[in-house]
Structure formats: C-alpha cells, structure tokens
Write a structure and sequence with these properties.
heterodimer; A: 77% helix; B: alpha/beta; 39% helix; 15% strand
C-alpha cells in the first residue's frame, strides 16, 4: 500500500486530477445509462452500455500506462499499432502473393518504435516515410507479381503511415525533454491529446444527435452533420483553451492554433478512415471493442490529431526536441 | 489429461490465436454447450481447428472434439499423442472409406457419449475461397443422432493466416460466424442442401477478409 501511495505521490498533481476527472465523467455516464431506460422504456440501450463498459477498459489501460511511464506507453502503442495494422491489412486489397510482405510490414512496427526508445527523433521521422516507402515495394519485386503492383505498394504504405507512424507520435510525446517546462510531465501531454481527441469524437456525436439536420459529407458518412461538426468543434476548442495550460506548456498563439485545428484534424481522420471502410465495404474494422467496433474505428481521429498536436508542441514550445 | 488439454488451449493456444487471428466471433451464444451435438464448418487451414477450440466457451471445452483424418493426425508418436490428448480428435480413417469398414464408428461413439463433434464436411482443406462439395458422412451421423443439433459455422480468413502448404503463419484477422442449428429431417439430400445453404448464408455475412 505504501508503495502505491508513493508511486502516486511522485506523479504530477495535474495528471492525477485529470485522470480523476475522466473517472468522474465516466461514472456520470454510467449513472445516465442506468436512468435512461427508465425514462424511455421502449428503447434499447445495450449498445450504449457496451460502449461505456469498453471505455472503462480502454481508459484503465491508457491511464495505467501513463502512470507507469514511457516504457509502458511505448509497449501499449506497439500493441495498438499491431492490432490496427492487422485490421487494416486484413481488409485492404492485398494479393495472395503478398503474405511475406505482410510479415515484413509487421516487422517495421518494432523498428519504428525502437527509434522512440533510443530517442532519435530524426530517424523516426524518416524511417517509415522514406526508407520503408522504398524498401517494401522493392521487396515486392522479389515476389515478381506485377498485377496491381502500384496499388498494393500504396496500400502497404497507407497502412504503415496511419497505424504505425502517425499513432507513434502519441508515444513519442512521452520522451519530451524535461528541460522544457511541462506542467503535468510528459504523461500530461499524452493525456491531454487523448482527452481532446476523444472528447471531440464524443461531442460531435452528441451535438449531431441533439441538433443534427444538415448533412456535411453524405456520400462518406451519412450520419455526420454540420451541426455535430460545429458543435463538437466549439466545445472541444473551449476545452482545449481552458484546460490546455493545465496539462501542456501551450499558451497564447500556440494554444489558439491547437484549439482551432485539433478538432478539425479529428473530424478529418474520422471521415477519411470512413471513406476507406466504405471503399472496402465494411462498417466496422473488426469486432475487437464491444459497442465501438474495431481498434481503427476508435483510433481513426487520433491517427490525424497525434502528429498535428506533436508538431504544434514542437513548433511553439518543445524547442529541445 | 483433461487439465493438460484445458491448460494448453486456454493458457497457450488462446493468446496465440488472438495474436494471429484477432478471433472475432459473431453469434457465440449459438454454440451448443451440451452434447450430443454436431458442428459443421468450412475448412481452409489447420488454423480452423485451433481457432474453434480457442473461441469455445471454457465450460463446454472438454466436450468439443474435432473429427480429423487418422492418416495425417495419427502419424508419428508425437503427432499422435498431441492429436489424441490435446486436440482430442475423433479419428476418421478416410483412406478406408468404401472398404466396408465403418469409418464413422469413433464419431458415433463420441456422440453417444455426449460429446460435441466438429466436422469439416468438405473432407479436406480447400483454398479458402469457394467451398468444395460436401461429403455426406455428416448426414449419416445426424440420422443416427436425430436429437443432436447441427450448428453451421463459417470460418473467414483462416486460409490466409496459414494456407495449405505454408509453414509460416502470418497474422491477419479472422471471423467466426455461428448460425442457427439445423436438425435431421429424414431426407439425406434435403439435409445436405440445407446445410450447404446455411454455410453459404454465413459466408455472405462475413467481412471481406480475403485476398484481392
């Protein structure tokens, strides 16, 4: 007990308050799902309660990793990238000859994350976008099947950049140098990225349900509306503006840029991944997370917000990176 | 040996199967938990058998026994030990079919003992795309045990994780789709057709986890 107490005492107070706040919101959501069936006896709320149960599991995993430190976060994101890439490659158009290339694509995951482990930002930046980009298509030439060669090479690259490179930025934030003033430590940076991204998802959904009238992008996501997008944007921007300084070193212009662009990036990630799913002909990327669908259904917005947030932080605050 | 089988399947095979296949399952509540019962599934890979054993509810696991070719699975001492004790196969001497010997006798005994017997009615592993012609042995078993439900199961994607002839498994998502059980109605041709239609219907619901 003493050990646990000391481990908690070593954490930045803002991070603990933040995690406590998330637990509070989740408990409130549980209370609402308990009351809703009484107010509306005819409706089925199974999906909603499944969703919230899954949130408990996801938040427990992420919070546990954030409290344990950068190694735990790195390991968790290696697993997330693997599951995401497996979902992507399972549904994408891959030829039967490409089994070996699928295996090589998985091998890129530990290598990419190894650059985070040894804290070599420059190598991380170029490994997948430059070197894997050249190497995987070259490996495809060994197999010799030229039918749909370009489309397949592009598919592998898309999967690796989204599921491994972009998501990896979230884990890389844990290596933020402490010489920069971080009000809630490196874990606070990751915590705030996750909270802002997921809050944006949830608020766009809630505003859309409450006021949604005018479809924003009907051919890709028929349930998305202008009202949901703008409502979610405004709510998330306000959240970032008021809570950002508690968890991040952002202020002034940097904070304003984050508040304006992070919700847009979340929306962009969501609908871009939706377009891919629609192309393939599925609604969910798998059935991994009860009530949510697959991992990519949950992480689609994070795929776009993680790199943006990372680079805004570097540009405005983390000069030593 | 029962504890060893449970330990191997739950503690070793289950996590490995999750890593390599994702092990998504649709209609898990339709799996029979009591024997005698027959499970019929399409067959594209050795992954099929392992996947089905690992997704099965633990409380019924002791009862689940895959029917498997004796000429392959009882070859060599190690393989034979593993097949009998861990997979708990019901051996089918497919090479002796038509010789007058009752090759389904072990399956009948298992059903009579209240086991859940998994049968791949294609008789062998296919290419994972189209189902080959279904063999009617399963109809003879259903006729002998008309009270046993016959539950159709479609296994999507396992043929990509480890196709016939491949030695290295590659992680790719698979989906197990369980349908409503069908029953023996008295006519062999009608039963076989009903089973084929049920499997094709599940296949149509499966996510496109297949090669381009």
């Amino acid at each position: 007990m003493d050990l646990i107490a000391r481990a908690f005492a070593a954490q930045p107070p803002a991070l603990l308050w933040g995690l406590g706040g998330v637990l509070g919101v989740l408990t409130l959501a549980v209370a609402i799902t308990a009351v809703l069936p009484r107010l509306n006896p005819g409706k089925d709320y199974t999906n909603l309660s499944q969703r919230i149960t899954s949130w408990w599991v996801m938040i427990a995993l992420l919070a546990g990793a954030l409290l344990l430190g950068w190694v735990a976060v790195l390991v968790l994101f290696v697993v997330i990238s693997f599951i995401g890439l497996r979902e992507f490659l399972s549904l994408a158009h891959i030829r039967p000859e490409d089994r070996l290339i699928v295996l090589l694509a998985y091998v890129c995951i530990p290598i990419s994350y190894a650059f985070i482990a040894i804290d070599r930002y420059g190598m991380y930046l170029v490994f997948i976008p430059v070197y894997v980009f050249m190497f995987l298509p070259f490996a495809m030439t060994w197999i010799g099947q030229t039918r749909a060669f370009l489309a397949t090479a592009a598919t592998f690259h898309w999967g690796l950049v989204t599921c491994v490179y972009n998501l990896g930025f979230a884990a890389f934030l844990m290596r933020a140098p402490l010489t920069d003033h971080l009000p809630a430590g490196p874990a606070g940076l990751v915590f705030f990225l996750l909270v802002a991204t997921e809050a944006n998802d949830v608020m766009q959904y809630v505003w859309g349900k409450l006021l949604g009238r005018h479809k924003i992008i009907p051919k890709v996501s028929p349930n998305k509306t202008w009202e949901g997008f703008i409502g979610g944007w405004a709510t998330t921007a306000a959240l970032i503006w008021f809570l950002g300084p508690v968890f991040t070193p952002l202020s002034g212009l940097g904070l304003a840029v984050t508040a304006i662009f992070l919700p847009v990036a979340g929306f962009a990630g969501d609908v871009t991944m939706s377009a891919i799913k629609r192309d393939i002909g599925v609604k969910d990327s798998s059935a991994l997370i009860p009530g949510h669908g697959g991992l990519l259904d949950r992480a689609d917005s994070l795929i776009f917000t993680a790199p943006l947030y990372f680079h805004i932080l570097i540009f405005f605050c983390l000069r030593d990176f | 040996m029962r504890w060893l089988r449970r330990a191997v399947i739950v503690a070793i095979a289950r996590p490995i199967a999750r890593v390599f296949t994702g092990a998504d399952i649709v209609g898990r509540e339709k799996l029979p938990l009591k024997g005698p019962a027959i499970l019929v599934a399409n067959h594209a890979s050795h992954v099929d058998t392992v996947l089905l054993l690992t997704i099965y509810p633990s409380k019924a696991l002791d009862r689940v026994r895959p029917a498997a070719a004796a000429d392959y699975f009882l070859k060599g001492r190690l393989m034979s030990w593993f097949s009998r004790n861990i997979l708990a196969i019901v051996p089918v001497a497919r090479d002796r079919a038509g010789s007058g010997e009752d090759v389904l006798a072990p399956a009948r005994e298992a059903l009579a003992a209240g086991d859940i017997v998994l049968i791949f009615p294609e008789g062998t592993r296919g290419d994972g795309e189209e189902m080959s012609k279904l063999k009617s042995g399963v109809a003879r078993l259903a006729a002998a045990f008309p009270e046993a439900p016959v539950t159709p199961i479609w296994l999507q994607g396992a043929g990509r994780v480890l196709p016939k002839g491949a030695h290295v498994p590659v992680p790719l998502n698979c989906t197990v789709l369980v349908g409503e059980a069908i029953r023996w109605g008295g006519d062999r041709a009608a039963f076989m057709e009903e089973m084929r239609v049920a499997l094709e219907a599940l296949k149509a619901l499966a996510p496109p986890q297949r090669w381009a």
